[in-house]
Design brief:
Layout (H helix, E strand, L loop, with lengths): L1 H19 L3 H6 L2 E13 L14 E13 L2
Antiparallel strand pairs: 1-2
């Protein structure tokens, strides 16, 4: 099911690129690709005495993100 959804999304994305340019070759020659990669780190250090005794543990989280866009000329 995931493969079918991915295939459909790819087909829709490619058809919009072809629709925006005269040919697929023009779309790739005159197009502009943009993107950004992000990484976030969040950490929290708990003082065990102030936040519930020995059961309070430190926590941390690492998150990554990717955004890509394509515009034909």
């Amino acid at each position: 099911m995931k493969l079918a959804k991915l295939s459909l999304a790819t087909l829709i994305a490619m058809s919009s690129v072809v629709y925006g340019a005269d040919t697929l070759e023009d779309a790739f020659k005159n197009g502009k690709v943009n993107g950004e990669i992000r990484a976030f780190y969040f950490g929290r250090d708990y003082d065990a005495a102030a936040h519930g005794g020995p059961g309070a543990t430190d926590s941390s989280l690492m998150a990554f993100g990717l955004r890509l866009s394509y515009e034909d000329g």
